[in-house]
Design brief:
Order of helices and strands: HHHHH
Helix content: over 70%
Strand content: under 5%
Number of helices: 5
Structural class: mainly alpha
Radius of gyration: 18 Å
Number of strands: 0
Low-confidence stretches: 5-13
Amino acid sequence: MTRPGGEVAAATATNGGISWRLLAWSLAALHVAYVLFVLFGALIVLAWPGVMLVHLAAIVWAGATMIGNLGCPITDWEKSALRRGGREPYPEGFLQHHVLRTRFEPGKARRNHFVLGIVAIAVNAIAYLLVL
């Protein structure tokens, strides 16, 4: 990241920049694990039924953030760490950037978030119906 006048951000010249980028990468990995847990957690519940309440809470949060377009704090933390590490964060959301690897047209992003939220809830509803 450059500042007006062409200076390189101080964070990139120090080990602190690397630490912030490592934190951003770690947050992205945590986020991927959360998405996988939301989508496939019902399989974990088969082995460990005690995880069911945590999984249901994760589904509700994921559905609410996607359907209600609430945004996710992990994405905000990752983008903040990237900035502090001297990198420009991606403009789109986490799923579009890291998981789907596509950029939605700005007018369709809201619709796509809604659809992804419904899909996450539906996949888990079907899984729980099959389990019970």
